[in-house]
Amino acid sequence: xxxxxxxxxxxxxxDTYVDQRLTLLETANKLxxxxxxxxxxxxxxxxxxxxxxxxxxxxxxxxxxxIPIIDIAKILGVSKSAVxxxxxxxxxxxxxxxxxxxxxxxxxYIYIFAxxxxxxxxxxxxxxxxxxxxxxxNQHLPDGWVVHHLNGIKDDNRPxxxxxxxxGEHVGLAKPYKQRIRELELRIKYLEIHNNNPDNxxxxxxx
Length: 207
What we know:
Order of helices and strands: HHHHHHHEEEHEEH
Number of strands: 5
Number of domains: 3
Strand content: 5-15%
Strand order of the largest sheet: 1-2-3
Largest sheet: 3 strands, antiparallel
Radius of gyration: 20 Å
Helix content: 40-55%
Shape: globular
Number of helices: 9
Structural class: mainly alpha
């Protein structure tokens, strides 16, 4: 006989996750369910994910000591995907061993191993650009939408390079526009270098 499915009422999730501001892990432990189940219920009830503060120095210390990501998440009281995203924001290079396959690239796009995320592939991977967009905007990507890379570079997942659009609209962003965005980004980089080193003159052809 199959085990009886557990149904968590919205009011219980509202009390534990929202009102008490427990992390995903703390909520899961208190309700006796998995972190993945908590995220599914949050999605079902339309409850927005709460971004909990992660101490930068503590995270660097734990990761520098080669503590596995799953253990870091438990220590900090957040999900594994939250740990990954924070490492990414800090520009910390992820060790593949810690991620059990962690960060892979396919057809130009980067995918992250995050089986506890609210939506994943069968093998537990999530497109990094979608994950970054959702975390930046603190919402799920609407049904029928895609995340587009404004400069056309598929592995450039900086928040400012990502735009959520209804599927089909991003096709209209022509190559000349993408090329122009890349040129402007290069100009900005050049100006930043010049500002840090005034003795280095700005080439006139940039303007």
